[in-house]
Amino acid sequence: MGRGIALGVVIVVAAAASVLVFSPPVPRLQAETSTPSPSAHDYGPVPAGVPLIYGAEPANELWLTAYDWSGNARGTLKLPGPLTHELVPDSHCFVLPDQQSFDEVLYVDVPGQPLNRRVGVIEHEPNLVQFGVDAVECNFKRNLAIAVRTAVGTTSDAWAVRLSDASILGHWSYDRTLSVVPSTDGSLLAENGANGGVTRIRSIPDGAVLARLPAIDAVNAFSDDNRLAVIGPVVSVAQIRVLDWRTGNEVWHNGNAGWTMRVAVNPGTGDLAIAVGTEEQYHGLTQDATYPLVIVHPDGSVAEIPGRRVWILPPYADGYYPYKGGPP
Question: In angstroms, what CA-CA distances link 250 with 55, 241, 255, 274?
């Protein structure tokens, strides 16, 4: 998620565990958006109380097809204007730099509290050109945030931060680390290619190393129960796998080389939805933003949604992750 403040509420979609909010750019004229493509199919009203994934056909991105976690189309959401494809929950956190002091400051937005409430300083930067900190995890139930610092395009630091007062609970520094990926509840942190070597999985906030994986096994995401990890490339295309990271047992793999574009989890089930990018998309040879999507269940069974779509998924685990409850 980019550095910045979530924009205003425009369209609200009821989901099983939260209210998801679309943040659109300036909409086009209604006359331009009211006529669907002949290929668009209307599946009727979107059902309430059902966990859903939204995908749009390239020919008409204003009609979103709602799919359940078995891959079945359950309804159609008709939008009045184009979106940025970003979902924002009511409660979230973010980090912004203070342009005068060069401090990286943690903020929270919680219903019923002042907008963009300043919590505290995470780190002081020597400058704001080559350095930046983002909140990659925000869990109000655990009173925990995870912040990651990028220095000259490389992940250099990670912090476990108390969400209520910005106290530092843990700090880890890296060199040559490819990326760090939290679990959805913030209890795990994968350090991919840590210091040019293995991938480490840490317990948060105590920092204990629970597992070491080969450097080639980069963790792209965890299931919501923390049992499974999506293993895929960070700087190339390769086979994507879903593993039980504690035992090494493989649950699923895709047949062709690709890269993990986005991942969503279905809370309370262990299900993973993975949008898979192609080699051409990875190398920037195409502007195509449509991807196939596969839903992997913990028992290894899968549901593949036919075709390619622009997927609008709940954020996986960053500061806008929607399934985290109320304020600390």
Answer: 28, 7, 14, 16
